[in-house]
Amino acid sequence: MASKKSLPISGTLTVMVIVVVLVPSAMLDETAVFRDTFMKKCVGYPEDKNTCKATLAIFEEAYVGKDKTAVTEESYNTLFDKTPFKHPCGKTMFWSGTYELASRFTQKRDNFYNVGDTLLGHVLTGMAWCGKAGSKETFTDNCADVFPNPVLSFWLKISVKFAQYACDDSYVMLDGEKDQPYYTGTVLDTHEVPNLQTNRLKSFTAILVVNKETGTKCNKESLKNLSNILKGKKINYACKEVTRSIKNCF
Ligand SMILES: NC(=O)c1ccc[n+]([C@@H]2O[C@H](COP(=O)([O-])OP(=O)(O)OC[C@H]3O[C@@H](n4cnc5c(N)ncnc54)[C@H](O)[C@@H]3O)[C@@H](O)[C@H]2O)c1
């Protein structure tokens, strides 16, 4: 039996063992936790387990063992080649400045799809990941503090692919209360609209979310820019105002 005097010593030893053994393994576990979250979200999408395992392996090839700035949009080429979109390409829903509303809308209306409704978009929403030259680990802190970085490069690449895939009649949900609902420099402007395909898309409709319908907000200058870009692509453009309830939308 341990004497009362020896107890503080064994207490100190226990603390040392916890510090020495548990801290490094917790650090290494960042990779395990990331993989576990990826797999859970992928299987829950739902997608079968083997496909999820293979997709995770291809995904990791894009950034593991590389410094953050070495991961560009091109780094994800193989991932997107091997993980083609499966959702119906019509009724694609883009958004800009309206994330919450557009996400809620496509969740309720399962015949509309935004990028977060695709397998990779669903799995990687809310996640961060990066690697380091010479390391096999995935890190999840401070991954997006440089340009380019693995997280931004992924979202830019998926946006390009998502826009190229859109067909038939597609939509963009915009904030009709802003001065410029179609805002220069957004991902919508730089990576999505330029990649809409003339031979795939019939129409592109701007849904302007407004506090109160006035019938005038579609005339805003920035929407004329959008309309002209689509005209140049020979894609029919339409615009309509809807209030936040979106009951009058479709
Ligand atoms: N996590 C994701 O799901 C994700 C990530 C990146 C890109 N995307 C794709 O890109 C599009 C969204 O990205 P985005 O950059 O266009 O929009 P965003 O809503 O992410 O906006 C980007 C920035 O511009 C500002 N902004 C947006 N519209 C504005 C306006 N009218 N006036 C003033 N400021 C405005 C926002 O506040 C934000 O700071 C979607 O169509 C989506 O398909 C999705």
Automatic annotation (TrEMBL):
Q: Which UniProt keywords apply?
A: Disulfide bond, Hydrolase, NAD, Signal, Transferase
Q: Where is the signal peptide?
A: 1-28
Which top-level enzyme class is recorded in the Swiss-Prot or TrEMBL entry? hydrolase
Enzyme Commission numbers on file: 3.2.2.6
Gene3D superfamilies the UniProt entry points to: ADP Ribosyl Cyclase, Chain A, domain 1, NAD(P)-binding Rossmann-like Domain
Instruction: Give the GO terms filed under biological process for this record.
Output: positive regulation of B cell proliferation
Spell out the GO cellular component terms annotated for this protein, sorted alphabetically and separated by semicolons: plasma membrane
Query: Does the record's keyword annotation contain Metal-binding?
Result: no
**Database matches in Pfam families:** Rib_hydrolayse (PF02267)
What GO annotations for molecular function exist for this entry?
NAD+ nucleosidase activity, cyclic ADP-ribose generating; phosphorus-oxygen lyase activity; transferase activity
What's the family?
Belongs to the ADP-ribosyl cyclase family.
Can you name this protein?
ADP-ribosyl cyclase/cyclic ADP-ribose hydrolase
Organism, by scientific name, is: Xyrichtys novacula (Pearly razorfish)
Q: What is the lineage of its organism?
A: Eukaryota, Metazoa, Chordata, Craniata, Vertebrata
